[in-house]
């Protein structure tokens, strides 16, 4: 059974039109991460939550925001997607007690 | 910021051969993780290493956490076609209340039957 679930798997959005990607987890992990992965590159950390504490990477554009309304859910909001934001977006979770991070299947975002 | 140097960038091997790849860093990590990613999918955790010097196996995979805590390697023995994919190392530190998982750039493995 999937433990980190990302919806949708594929998302097409228009240039400049806000889009939200979602992630849910059944692991009750207190850390949730959002990564951006472009073709043939390593995942790049955008931000992470440690419980309710939000930690933004210094080079994450302001265009990217996140919400974590509860332990199970985390959202990635892209306020005004540009063509350069087309990528695979990966959600991952980990627990303070054990440090393995588990990934969802990703959402492939296309900007047209 | 922290960076991981992963090598080689790509490998082309014959089925049945052994494979070795490694990651190094100028920073110390508390945990090393090795992932495999298939096209269009999220990374799947292969092996997690928690202690300096630790050697851990998972089937045909063996990974070690370097004694200096700045490096790790992954070996795959007797490769098979389904080993094809991109392998990522990742280092993780917990400082205070924060966690930060940093990835290497990946090793793309191709296996010829």
Descriptive labels:
heterodimer; A: 112 residues; mainly beta; seven-stranded mixed beta sheet; four-stranded antiparallel beta sheet; 0% helix; globular; B: 113 residues; six-stranded mixed beta sheet; five-stranded antiparallel beta sheet; 59% strand
Structural write-up:
The complex is a heterodimer of chains A (112) and B (113). With 112 residues, chain A is mostly beta strands. Chain A has strands at 4-7, 10-13, 19-25, 31-37, 44-50, 53-56, 64-67, 73-78, 87-94, 101-103, 107-111. Chain A contains no helices and 11 strands. In chain A, the strands form 2 sheets. In chain A, strands 2, 4, 5, 6, 9, 10 and 11 form a 7-stranded mixed β-sheet that branches. A 4-stranded antiparallel β-sheet of chain A has the order 1-3-8-7, with no helix packed on it. In chain A, β5 and β6 form a beta hairpin. The radius of gyration of chain B is 14 Å and the shape is globular. In chain B, strands 2, 4, 5, 9, 10 and 11 form a 6-stranded mixed β-sheet that branches. A 5-stranded antiparallel β-sheet of chain B has the order 1-3-8-7-6, with no helix packed on it. In chain B, 0% of the residues lie in helices and 59% in strands. With 113 residues, chain B is mainly beta.
Number of beta-strand segments of chain B: 11
Binned strand content of chain A = over 45%
Mean pLDDT of chain A: 93
Oligomer: heterodimer
Average pLDDT rating of chain B: 91
Number of helices of chain A: 0
Low-confidence stretches of chain A: none
Secondary-structure element string of chain B: EEEEEEEEEEE
What overall form of chain A do the CA principal axes indicate? globular
Estimate the helix proportion of chain B, in percent: under 10%
Number of strands of chain A: 11
What is the H/E string of chain A?
Answer: EEEEEEEEEEE
- Structural class call of chain A reads mainly beta
Radius of gyration of chain A: 13 Å
Rg over CA atoms of chain B: 14 Å
Beta fraction of chain B: over 45%
Which percent range fits the helix content of chain A?
under 10%
Shape of chain B: globular
